[in-house]
Design goal:
Length: about 575
């Protein structure tokens, strides 16, 4: 391994980017490869993947499909995978890794099982949760006759007292290795990729702070690895010989300190060199609060990440290359990994983020379909308004709520609510969105998550903020009276056009003067838990008119403005005539 101590010049030429091709392309002969139709063959090995809603799992599934494996995606709520582009190519099954009977059934018939589950950021008892879940999964894999288990753990130094996070990841690996099933444990340090928690933490610290005081551990050595190389090792591990059952260190070609990584990031991002002063008084706990304040990563997730940086994490061996050869062009270095990640972010091409998985402990019960739900009281704030815009124009505004665009109402109130949520350990508003304009089922949107999505019709968000109850926000485009061919802006046309990527034209068909108004319906729902929940609802209820009423009015106004902007400009066909 080489060590890079020099920070490159800001104007240094960028290395050529990687072609957008599957990592399996360089694993020919090791993986089965797809059939003539580009899909996995019927007799291809079956791999079961847990953690498919997470950052790594969501990216691993399409790579396994491209490698020619049949994939079984295991999730507690498989219906929530419907928005994934690969959903139609996998077998989606229900399975909870902490439930022995359920996970055993989900693993039945699988040749390989990927264990990509952890309780990172779920509170002080995450070690016990991880231990119980790993023991259950190990027993289920053995009883289901799985041929191999593959686990992505953390790189750690030998002979040191580990942070709780690294100690737990290490213990999970040992449990799986002792399962009686041949197991591959991949141990990685900082993962560099668009949307990874480690990358986002470094990115925001560097971009937002031209000068900073930092703990002395920023000078510990770290061997980061690009997410693309992590995926390559994960895919290649499925084909390891049956007599191989061990852990492997995996890392990229560069060994750097965290200080050097921030300076190199600044150079690549064309930022001035950062002033970084190390001080011995910042504990991991204090550092995690600072990270939570400055970056989108909440304190519950920041703390275990920061605690892990206290250790020097450098690979002791590169034995993985015996079974998964290095790519022909070599492993991806730090600079190239950062450029690739930034290109993804700037091009809105981030497929998964650290927030892709639901917040640990967040409610998962479905929204009661009946307002008179027998489970208890359900408070509803419902509003409707006619919008002088096509359904498609209104839907585009609805689908883009949150993130950088905000919530179309009293922004100070939203910022204060987000700050309070982060103070008590919630995700807050800084979590943002994966894509600025399009949503898929289960996407995170600030401190909400997409629970239901019907393009052109319905967006239902479930609150993941800390609340004494369960809350939802529902935005609907409701059907209006059809006007025949001249009224082609009806909601069905809008939905079809949205799915086809051409919603803008669907909503402008016909004469706007004769088109019936579009109905924008909005509901805020809250199921209180106990007296605290009741008090919370009535305490915030007086502000609903300002927050939710203003939100509805401003969304309607934005849709009408967008509609007028389109109809005031001659269409391409008219200009050609």
């Amino acid at each position: 391994m080489r060590r890079d101590d020099d920070v490159p010049e800001p104007g240094r030429a960028a290395e050529p980017g990687l072609a957008p091709e599957p990592v399996a392309r360089s694993l020919s002969g090791l993986v089965p490869g797809p059939g003539p139709d580009g899909r996995p063959r019927p007799d291809a090995p079956l791999v079961a993947v847990t953690g498919v809603t997470g950052y790594v799992g969501g990216r691993l599934v399409p790579e396994l499909l491209a490698a020619g494996y049949r994939v079984r995606a295991v999730a507690r709520h498989p219906d929530r995978l419907r928005g994934r582009p690969w959903f139609g190519d996998v077998e989606a099954v229900e399975g909870d890794a902490s439930d022995l009977d359920g996970i055993r059934a989900a693993l039945d018939g699988a040749d390989v099982a990927y264990y990509l589950i952890h309780s990172l950021g779920s509170g002080s008892s995450f070690e016990q949760r991880d231990r119980r879940t790993a023991l259950t999964f190990a027993q289920a894999a053995r009883e289901a006759g799985v041929g191999r288990v593959v686990y992505l753990g953390g790189l750690y130094p030998e002979g040191e007292e580990l942070s709780p996070h690294l100690a737990s990841r290490t213990e999970v690996g040992e449990i799986l290795l002792a399962s009686g099933v041949p197991t591959t444990v991949l141990r990685a340090a900082v993962v560099l990729g668009s949307g990874s928690a480690s990358f986002e933490m470094m990115r925001y610290l560097t971009e937002r702070l031209p000068a900073m005081t930092v703990p002395t551990w920023v000078d510990n050595r770290i061997q980061p690895i690009a997410i693309r190389d992590v995926l390559r090792y994960l895919v290649g591990s499925a084909a390891m010989p049956a007599d191989v059952s061990r852990a492997f260190d995996i890392g990229g070609p560069d060994v750097l300190t965290y200080r050097q990584m921030m300076q190199r990031y600044a150079a690549i991002a064309d930022l001035p060199r950062r002033v970084i002063v190390g001080v011995p008084v910042l504990s991991p706990r204090l550092s995690s609060h600072w990270v939570s304040l400055v970056t989108p990563v909440p304190g519950g997730l920041a703390r275990p990440l920061v605690e892990s940086l206290v250790h020097e994490v450098v690979c002791d061996e590169h034995d993985i290359a015996r079974y998964v050869p290095d790519p022909p062009d070599g492993l991806i270095g730090f600079d190239r990994a950062v450029r690739l990640a930034l290109a993804r972010i700037q091009g809105a091409g981030v497929t998964t983020r650290w927030s892709s998985a639901a917040v640990p402990g967040a409610p998962s019960d479905p929204l009661p379909s009946d307002p008179d739900w027998a489970g208890g009281s359900l408070h509803v704030d419902e509003r409707r308004v006619d919008v002088d815009a096509s359904p498609a124009a209104l839907w585009r505004v609805i689908e883009a709520v949150g993130g950088e665009r905000g919530w179309f109402s009293w922004s100070l109130a939203w910022r204060v609510r987000g700050l309070l949520d982060r103070i008590v350990g919630g995700p807050g508003l800084r979590r943002g969105r994966r894509d600025p304009s399009r949503l898929v089922l289960d996407d995170a949107v600030d401190f909400w998550r997409v629970e239901a999505l019907e393009p052109g019709r319905l967006l239902r968000l479930r609150a993941e903020m800390r609340l004494p109850g369960l809350a939802w926000l529902e935005l609907r485009v409701e059907p209006t009276e059809r006007t025949g061919d001249a009224g082609g802006g009806d909601v069905d046309a809008a939905a079809d056009a949205t799915d086809a990527g051409d919603a803008a034209d669907a909503g402008t068909a016909g004469d706007p003067a004769t088109r019936p108004p579009t109905v924008f319906a909005q509901r805020a729902l809250f199921h209180p838990h106990g007296l605290a929940g009741q008090l919370y609802w009535w305490a915030v209820y007086p502000f609903h008119g300002i927050v939710f009423g203003g939100m509805q009015r401003n969304i309607a106004r934005a849709a009408e403005t967008a509609e007028r902007a389109r109809t005031d400009v001659p269409r391409t066909a008219d200009r050609r005539r």
